[in-house]
């Protein structure tokens, strides 16, 4: 499947706020999507609408009843988007906060045993797992990822699995390299040795690229940050299995036993996620004739993946007479230049130009990227490669080949002038 046709591309871009200009900088190319994707215009409108409503849920009045229906509809939409055929959804402060909460619940509520996770993980899951392993008196097992591919494999988990594993964490896609891991395969490797382990997945980076299939993963928790999938800041979304809900939960005394929600919910958060789901469904109608909503969302995910592959291939191998990043002298492409598991992101370093200088020069030309440093966020990926920093270029399906060309032209000049 090729990149989106021009008319469809224009239609897609028209649905996002600030798609080609920053309200502070002016015209720019937005290649900082892993730090937070562009926001749907519909989500902006919905946020304003619900911010103005004074009523809360749970009251005996028409407004409160309407808010409850909106939340219920959003949870139904979430089930479609995530392809979840059971369990429940709820929102929290952020993806990181929800990841900590799920891991805390599993670590403290399960029996004696160990917790397993991998070195490729974002600190949202790795820090939570290590902290609550210590608090629960459970040994932490660290599965090494492969530095060359930027991935961790089912075999790597299997090699360190023991029957007493009670909690396992998996990173779906790395926000540093853009390389996705085989969630279903890793889950199967865990279940083969410890079938009752609670498996929790960080899907924060993966979500904007579509194709989430909770029903096919055999897991117990999945977390995303909606501001990275075209909604807004200020909330996270979590899915939990029924067996997770059966664990002892932090709850109000005498409150509903199966509820993960605390306090008054932000109806606007739920409603803006419905906007995201409706957008995916619309995009899916451009690629399938099916009337089934879940099939439309799946079609959208497939189309997004195909379009982004075209863009990342051009970024790495060049387009027109412009060389790709992989063709620049002294370049290191994190995860390798030909990694089939790459999702909409290229992270690279040049041995003769500091990453901070590249990001500054690109920004001066209206091309927004981001530096990743060997700190508590990215050191687990960069330090083993001998890198102190790298440039992250992250895109989404509303980006274009024209924008990639502008980036490559700028990089050609930056690399040449530095030499």
Main structural class: alpha/beta
CATH class of the largest domain: Alpha Beta
CATH topology (fold) name of the largest domain? Aspartate Aminotransferase, domain 2
In order across it, which strands form the biggest sheet? Answer: 4-10-9-8-7-5-6
Overall number of domains: 2
Overall number of strands? 15
* Radius of gyration over all CA atoms, rounded: 22 Å
What is the string of SSEs from the N terminus onward? HEEEHHEHEHEHEHEEEHHHEEHEEHEH
Tell me, briefly, the overall form. globular
User: What CATH architecture of the largest domain would you give?
Assistant: 3-Layer(aba) Sandwich
The portion of residues assigned to helices is 25-40%
**Low-confidence runs of at least 5 consecutive residues:** none
Counting copies of identical and different chains, the oligomeric state is: single chain
For the largest beta-sheet, the strand count, sense and barrel status come to: 7 strands, mixed
The whole-number mean of residue pLDDT values reads 96
Q: Helical element count?
A: 13
Note the beta-strand portion: 5-15%
Straight-line distance between termini: 38 Å
Domain Aminotransferase class V: 30-407
Protein name: Aminotransferase, putative
GO molecular function, one term: transaminase activity
Keywords: Aminotransferase, Pyridoxal phosphate, Transferase
């Amino acid at each position: 499947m090729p990149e989106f046709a021009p008319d469809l591309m224009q239609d897609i871009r028209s649905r996002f706020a600030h798609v080609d200009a920053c309200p502070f900088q002016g015209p720019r190319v937005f290649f900082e999507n892993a730090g937070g994707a562009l926001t749907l215009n519909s989500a902006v409108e919905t946020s304003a609408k619900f911010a103005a409503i004074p009523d809360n849920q749970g009251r005996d009045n028409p407004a409160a009843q309407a808010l409850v229906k909106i939340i219920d509809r959003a949870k139904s939409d979430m089930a479609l988007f995530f392809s979840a055929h059971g369990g429940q959804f709820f929102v929290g402060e952020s993806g990181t906060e929800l990841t900590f909460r799920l891991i805390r619940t599993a670590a403290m509520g399960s029996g004696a045993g160990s917790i397993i996770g991998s070195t490729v993980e974002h600190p949202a899951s790795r820090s939570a797992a290590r902290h609550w392993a210590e608090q629960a008196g459970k040994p932490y097992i660290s599965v090494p990822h492969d530095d060359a591919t930027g991935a961790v494999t089912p075999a790597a988990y299997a090699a360190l699995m023991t029957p007493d594993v009670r909690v396992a964490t998996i990173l779906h896609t790395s926000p540093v390299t853009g390389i996705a891991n085989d969630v279903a395969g890793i889950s199967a490797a865990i279940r083969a040795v410890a079938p009752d382990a609670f498996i929790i997945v960080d899907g924060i980076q993966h979500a904007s690229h579509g194709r989430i299939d909770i029903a096919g993963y055999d897991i117990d928790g999945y977390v995303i940050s909606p501001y990275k999938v075209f909604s807004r800041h200020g909330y996270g979304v979590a899915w939990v299995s029924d067996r997770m809900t059966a664990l002892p939960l932090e709850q109000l005394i005498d409150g509903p036993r199966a509820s993960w929600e605390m306090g008054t919910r932000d109806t606007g958060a739920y409603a803006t996620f419905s906007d995201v789901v409706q957008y995916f469904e619309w995009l899916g109608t451009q690629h399938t004739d099916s009337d089934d909503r879940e099939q439309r969302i799946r079609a959208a995910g497939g189309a997004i993946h195909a379009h982004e592959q075209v863009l990342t291939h051009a970024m790495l191998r060049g387009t027109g007479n412009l060389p790709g990043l992989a063709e620049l002298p002294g370049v290191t492409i994190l995860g390798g230049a030909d990694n089939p598991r790459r999702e909409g992101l290229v992270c690279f370093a040049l041995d003769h130009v500091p990453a901070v200088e590249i990001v500054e020069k690109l920004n001066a030309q209206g091309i927004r990227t981001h530096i990743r440093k060997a700190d508590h966020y990215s050191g687990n990926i960069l330090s083993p490669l001998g890198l102190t920093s790298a440039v992250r270029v992250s895109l989404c399906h509303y980006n274009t080949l024209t924008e990639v060309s502008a980036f490559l032209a700028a990089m050609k000049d930056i690399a040449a002038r530095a030499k």
